[in-house]
Amino acid sequence: MTDDAYAALEQLGAAPLWRFYGNLFPAQPRSRALPYRWSWQDLRPHLLHFSKTLSLHEAERRVLMLVNPGLTDPPATVTTLYAGLQIILPGETAQAHRHTSNAFRFVLEGEGAYTTVNGEPVRMAPGDLLLTPGWHWHDHTHQGDAPMIWLDALDYPLVNALEAGFYEQYPERLQPLTRGADLGSRQFLHGRLNPTWLTPDGTGNSPVTRYTWQETARALDAIAEDATGSEVDGIALEYTDPFTGGPVMPTIGCRIHRLRPGFDGAGRRHTASTVINVVRGEGATVVDGVRLEWSEHDTIAIPGWATYRHVNASASRDAVLFSYSDEPVMRSLGLYRTEPGDPGA
Ligand code: 1HN
């Protein structure tokens, strides 16, 4: 065919498959996301700067988005997921709203703030994981005496790609408190003794509003001496929905990893895209030949199908990583694949 013949097709809203085939059906996924590290030490002063110069009446949320250099429009951290750093000052409140995206917070610094989720005040302390399932009203209140900083995670890149994003602002700044503090967490505290009067809400979100660091640390400590762990991910525990034993959200799975002193992990890749925040320690994650050195509260992007391995740089101290990924999406759609590999470098 001549070029004219191709031009005629375009006018008719048609295209020759043979010119697109390789891109539409690559032999394996090629993520647009890049391996990347966001430095806590470099970003924290900017958060503090904006906390002094921008009020929470000017900005609905005071958040620095962690934008992957390969995913700037629309901004995302990995292809399906977002991460941001949020700061709130003593005495401040952040306007109530809700969206269909599922969200969670992982607390990095400070105490004395709470998020209200559908009427329940959920308290925040460093290392806590707080869930804000889709379409739940949420607002933040800080009653402590120092800035409070947390990592926000949302699945909006996925939800927007699926064109399922809805958003609504609450008619008042804050919603009324209608439930006991941390009730969703207290009701399932044991994890193996569930309230008989409650049933799952059908969304695939865990009913636990707050997974406290205290409980997480206790779970890690209980097996500190003799757990085998994974040669790739270290002693990795998955936060679970007590009703199902499955991931905490339909779109996002969360884990805590302890890498023993000197841990020198094996390499692996999977179709799930992953974001990591460093709870403590120093080390490196090698991703497709790129060495990402990390220390406390740095954030790391591991694109889907990128090969990675973790290293704890210390011979005497643990490293602890918090991770989240879209693995539940991949699994529920039958798209989860994994294999061992060597990331090089
Ligand atoms: C959001 O609702 C919060 O509620 C934080 O604190 C970050 C980023 C994108 C869209 C919604 C929050 C967000 C967000």
* Largest sheet features: 6 strands, antiparallel
CATH class: Mainly Beta
Overall structural class, as computed from helix and strand content, comes to alpha+beta
Mean pLDDT: 97
Total number of helices: 7
Q: What is the terminal separation in angstroms?
A: 47 Å
By CATH, the topology is Jelly Rolls
Q: Provide the domain count.
A: 1
For the record, what is the CATH homologous superfamily label? Jelly Rolls
SSE run = HHEHEEEEEEEEEHEHEHEEEEEEEEEHE
Present as ligands are: 1-hydroxynaphthalene-2-carboxylic acid
Within the largest sheet, what's the order of strands?
Answer: 1-19-16-21-14-13
Amount of beta strand: 25-35%
Radius of gyration, in angstroms, nearest whole number: 21 Å
Q: What general outline do the C-alpha atoms trace?
A: globular
Uncertain regions spanning at least 5 consecutive residues: none
Fraction of residues in helices? 10-25%
CATH architecture: Sandwich
Please count the beta strands (DSSP E, at least 2 residues each): 22
Provide structural commentary.
With 345 residues, this protein is α+β, with helices and mostly antiparallel strands. It has one domain (23-197, 210-340): Sandwich (Jelly Rolls). It is 15% helix and 31% strand. The chain contains 7 helices and 22 strands. The protein has helices at residues 3-11, 21-24, 40-53, 156-161, 183-186, 213-222, 327-332, and strands spanning 36-38, 63-65, 82-88, 93-99, 103-109, 113-117, 120-123, 129-132, 138-142, 148-154, 167-169, 210-211, 235-238, 253-259, 268-270, 274-280, 283-287, 290-294, 299-302, 308-312, 319-325, 338-340. Strands 1-19-16-21-14-13 form a 6-stranded antiparallel β-sheet. A hairpin with a 2-residue loop joins strand 17 and strand 18. The longest helix is centred in the N-terminal third of the chain and has 14 residues, at 40-53. The protein is globular and about 70 Å long. 40% of the residues are buried. The model has no long low-confidence stretch (mean pLDDT 97). Bound molecules: 1-hydroxynaphthalene-2-carboxylic acid (1HN). 1-hydroxynaphthalene-2-carboxylic acid is lined by residues 61, 63, 84, 86, 138, 152, 154, 156.
